[in-house]
Specification:
One of its GO terms (biological process) is phosphorelay signal transduction system. The chain is an alpha+beta fold. The chain is built from 26 helices and twelve strands. A five-stranded antiparallel sheet has the order 2-1-5-4-3, sandwiched between helices.
Length: 690
């Protein structure tokens, strides 16, 4: 029963290794042979569990041992030469057949394993010696990679030396000692980590198995718990054995208190952190699990708020979380020096409420300010991350850096991490470990912190750039609206000029006076609307839609707003349906296009406004035709609808056609142009119906 536990543990361990090997996608003889050997060991160990398969006969035991040895001999034959691409290449070599010949002979000759156990013991002794000889050959030819091969050499050497002793002893007493058989499962299980270490070290095998830090942490905690409970059980047994009547009571008390103590220790974050740091330092080649840390940093930064203080605080705490530090300050370079924009400490665990604190106010004395300025100036030149604790011990590692050692000791921060932008210092963070363990700034930590600072710095700089873009967009929108208002003011001024030009001649005419007041009333209404545009953005965006006939609006525009130019337009109504749109905006569109047509046409030319329907009865068409100078195709495609591009010099704003096209498209319609130089133009407006 005791042996079953050992073989069971060994089976589970080799099954786990086998599953890891099967996840490796890269093909190769080394992987396939290792999979074969691991599978053979797993099956060998499983078949020796008597509680599952019943008592094991001697012939079955010997056959299982020979099969296992055969698989490992094939693996070692493949290790002698590294140029094999598949298993068939290994089997084709004559030396491979010589290596596996004893095992094949034993399997193919039942007499050896069934009738005469003494010969079987001798065969297994030979196979064990053969493995030991091959291990010596593999180790010597490994050359510079002996360090990588050493664990697997120890694993196979120790297990096969034990096999040799087992069967050498069996040869002398003519039977296999049960103690040796019971111990084998435990020995293979305890030595197996050496096999895993070699697999990770030998890179040319192409087997890159991965065991996460969390799995190792939990496994280690379980191992510690098992060892602790085992010791407590032994102590309890000793007390029960020696304690007489009180022994059982004391044993129960000890067991309960042991479980309580174990639970208390395992629920301690400090204990778990120390175990994790120990495992990271001593069992992994890399100090950080970069995939996990990068995902955590990205998720942390994406949860930040929209305000600058939230973004800066998220960047600072992201840096702290990356190395498990507790407190820090984040500074940004300004024209007046350095500004503290975020704080983090284990006491508040929140961003500073006063993020506008200056560098001078952020520390208690000028010596500390001088330290920060010196570090920032030094890092601005080379972009280095600076470990102030290391500077106190080895100042020569930072050539050219001169710091006040007394001020540095009283400062309390260990790491100075710069944030660069275009090769210049954008800002920096100073970090302190607090009660946590300090990290050593070796090459890996430097590379890791450089990558983290690049990510965090880019995140904060992108946020600032986004704010600038948003502000510029607001200014651009305001400028655009102002341009349209100025354009309308110019039109209002033209109406006022028209009144003044005719005032001397018609000021005694009652009809002229009546028209003047009507025009002034219309001008007042337009100016009120323009003021509303400047003060109420929401009202401008929403507009006011109403149902009306475009022909009536077109006649009003021609008679009241375009009558001062020549030629005077003519309105033709062929087919009309009422539309529901913003009447004032449509009036502006018609005025822009009609006045442009008048300005492009000689006084004796023609400008016609034709209102008709579309063939599908889904659009109301308005055609504005002129016999003016016309436009070429390049001008229409490249300049006509480009805002602030005008051919009228200072007399035009260059937004009339752009405004017309933008509005028509915003209501689901379209605007098309047909024109030829010297033959006039035709603008067609499609207003949606319904």
């Amino acid at each position: 029963m005791i042996s079953d536990v050992g073989y069971g543990l060994n089976s589970l361990a080799h099954l786990a290794l086998l599953l890891l090997l099967l996840t490796v996608r890269k093909p190769g003889a080394a992987k396939h042979l290792l999979v074969l050997a691991t599978t053979a060991t797993f099956l060998w160990s499983t078949t020796l569990i008597t509680s599952l398969f019943g008592p094991i006969s001697l012939s079955w035991l010997l056959s299982a041992d020979v099969l296992k040895q055969l698989a490992w001999l094939l693996f070692l034959a493949g290790c002698i030469q590294t140029s094999f691409s598949n298993i068939s290449d290994v089997l084709k070599r004559p030396v491979t057949l010589i290596i596996i010949a004893p095992a094949l002979a034993a399997l193919l000759t039942p007499y050896l394993l069934v009738v005469n156990p003494a010969w079987s013991f001798l065969v297994l002794i030979v196979l064990s010696l053969e493995v030991l000889v091959l291990l010596e050959v593999v180790y010597r030819q490994a050359g510079r990679e002996q360090w990588a091969f050493k664990p697997i050499i120890i694993y196979l050497g120790a297990t096969n030396l034990f096999e040799f002793v087992t069967y050498a002893n069996a040869t002398m007493v003519n039977q296999v000692e049960i103690g040796y058989i019971a111990a084998r499962g435990y020995i293979y299980f305890l030595l197996m980590p050496l096999l895993v270490i070699s697999i990770r070290r030998i890179h040319h095998w192409g087997i890159d198995i991965f065991i996460s830090r969390d799995v190792v942490l939990h496994s280690s905690l379980l191992l510690v718990a098992g060892g602790y409970l085992f010791v407590m059980a032994v102590v309890g047994y000793a007390i029960n054995y020696m304690g007489g009547n009180w022994g059982a009571t004391v044993q129960i008390i000890l067991v309960v208190m042991s479980f309580a103590l174990l639970a208390t220790v395992f629920l301690s974050n400090g204990f778990r952190t120390k175990i994790k740091v120990f495992i990271t330092k001593h069992f992994f080649a890399n100090q950080f699990d970069y995939r996990v840390e990068w995902v955590k940093l990205t998720q942390w930064l994406t949860r930040a708020g929209d305000t600058s203080s939230d973004v800066y605080y998220a960047g600072l705490t992201g840096m702290l979380n990356a190395i498990q530090y507790e407190s820090g300050l984040l500074f940004k370079v300004t024209q007046n020096g350095y500004e503290c924009v975020a704080k983090a400490s284990p006491i508040t665990n929140t961003a500073s409420t006063d993020n506008n604190e200056s560098l001078t106010d952020s520390k208690e004395n000028n010596a500390t300010c001088t330290t920060l300025e010196t570090l920032a100036s030094y890092s601005d030149k080379n972009g280095w991350i600076i470990d102030t604790d290391a500077y106190l011990v080895k100042p020569f590692d930072y050539e050219g850096l001169k710091l006040d050692r007394d001020a540095l000791k009283a400062w309390g921060y260990q790491l100075f991490v710069p944030f660069l932008k275009d090769g210049k210092l954008w800002g920096f963070a100073v970090l302190a470990s607090g009660d946590n363990e300090k990290i050593s700034l070796n090459w890996e930590v430097k590379d890791y912190l450089t990558a983290v600072s690049e990510q965090v710095g880019t995140y904060m700089q992108h946020h600032e750039a986004a704010q600038v873009v948003a502000e510029n967009a607001q200014f651009a929108a305001f400028n655009r609206m102002s341009a349209f208002v100025l354009h309308d003011l110019k039109n209002v001024l033209a109406q006022v000029d028209l009144i003044l030009a005719n005032a001397q001649q018609h000021k005694h005419n009652p009809e002229f006076i009546e028209d003047t007041f009507e025009t002034l009333e219309h001008t007042k209404a337009r100016m009120e609307k323009m003021l509303k545009q400047l003060t109420d953005k929401k009202a401008v965006e929403e507009g006011v839609n109403s149902e009306f006939l475009i022909s009536e609006l077109a006649k009003d525009v021609v008679n009241n707003r375009c009558s001062g130019l020549r030629p005077l337009p003519t309105v033709h109504v062929l087919k009309e349906t009422a539309v529901t749109v913003d009447k004032d905006k449509v009036a502006n569109v018609l005025y822009h296009l009609i006045s442009n047509a008048q300005q492009a046409t000689a006084d004796d030319g023609e400008v016609d406004v034709v209102i008709t329907g579309n063939s599908d009865n889904k659009s109301q068409l308005v055609l504005i035709e002129d016999t003016g100078s016309g436009m070429d195709k390049a001008f229409i495609e490249e300049r006509l609808f480009k805002p602030f591009d005008t051919t009228k010099g200072n007399a035009g704003m260059g937004i009339g056609a752009y405004d017309a096209k933008t509005y028509i498209e915003s209501i689901g319609g379209k605007l098309t142009v047909q024109s030829e130089p010297g033959r006039g133009s035709c603008f067609t407006l499609y207003f949606p119906i319904g």
